[in-house]
Amino acid sequence: MHRFPLQQYLKSTHGACSRPARSFSAAVLIMTTLLWPFAMGGHEAHGQGAKPSGAAKDEGTKTSKPVSTKPAERDKKRPAAPVPPAVRDYSSRNFLMHTDLPPDEAKDLLTRLETMLGLISKYWGKPNRTTIEMYVVKDLAIWPPGSIEPRGLASIEGGAGVTLGQTAFLGTEAVDAKAIVYSVADRGTPQHEAVHAYCLLNFGRTGPIWYSEGMAEMGQYWKDKDFSVSIHPVVFDYLKSSPPKSLDEIIAPGQTTGDSWQNYAWRWALCHLLANNTNYAARFRPLGLSLLSSKPGSFELTYGPAAKEINFEYQFFLKHLEQGFRADLCSWDWNTKAVTVKGTASVQSKIDAKKGWQASRLLAKEGETYQFTPTGTWKLTAEGEAISPASTEGETGRLAGVLFNDYELSEPFVIDIAQGWTAPSDGALYLRCQEGWGALQDNTGTVTVKIKRAAENSRESGIKEASKP
Ligand SMILES: [Zn+2]
After folding, report:
1. What domains, with CATH codes, occur in the chain?
2. Distance 215 CA to ligand 1 centre (A)
3. Which of 88, 168, 192, 389 fits a 20 to 30 Å CA distance from 267?
């Protein structure tokens, strides 16, 4: 799997962000250089949309290790001397960066870029083969006239970024490539563009727009060994407040790069889900590699047979999206069969506190009352108190249920263990530990839940029932 860095993203404070009316300055661009010894088969430009305005204001984090230490060590001894703003060059293993960022911020960015590059090259299985050159601009006024390529300049003036590249092909195989990134110095754009540059340089292509831009958006958020959702608050609010864009719309052909940050948000959502959900992740990586190859597969070919399932999980993901949501832990269980229980028969399941809805194995019948017997406890944080799902203090930590019927879910409910539960409709019952969707991943413990019909139980313990007033 893949993770990208975003270490300090959420720690940086964003002011009240208003969604920008501006959209993109970067359109599809064509390189015209004739220096290439091969037939020029492809030219690509990838724009990164102007970000929500808050994104441009968070260059303040300075916690990473410096990439090159000499000036930094000097700075430590003389902290009072401010470095005059100027365009400087910084290099690291895979990057050459021209920027007017202050040295500590430039080094912090290089460190983040290197970390991300390590993660994406592991994900795509190809080490980066050549230096990625980047122009990262904080204040255009500092840059001498003519020092930035006009198409890059236009993108930067629009508050965005663009990757200009060209690929040399022999037949359909990419044999060489060049890529230069032009980007504003906000938190996410340089990393987004660096993903495009990596793909261009190492595959000669970046894939169809939905994949190319969705993966580049993921690039700015990916963290090592962290699968949780952690996105820009404005992007988050937009996804939460908008009617879901259909999968067909997201993957539709004929889209252009740099259309709008809102479209990028949907592409991110689809790529994040497919890359993390355990039902689809194993097919997503090879699909991506084929999209980056000369014989591309397609979303429809890969996932067509599971279209209903993917659509259900995509809608579910958007509905329950929270910062901290774990698509891998909330993957739907399509395999466990639900059965009706008759007489004194029962079904049993193990419910993991940190996972989303899990199959109880019960096929509930409308109007039937069921008795639940949970065994065990769980915790809402690693060090928290052990809680029984039968606890009656508040709703958090109790056993919650939802009914699944023909790809539709009922409203969820908290189960009263003492009173039993009467099914409001037919459906397969799914269970989980009641807590916010963004807060599940640190939970521990599993509870075994046995379910049987309460009616049979009442008849067996008829004396007890009769003695009640
Ligand atoms: Zn892009």
Report:
1. 39-320 (1.10.390), 346-460 (2.60.120.430)
2. 9
3. 168
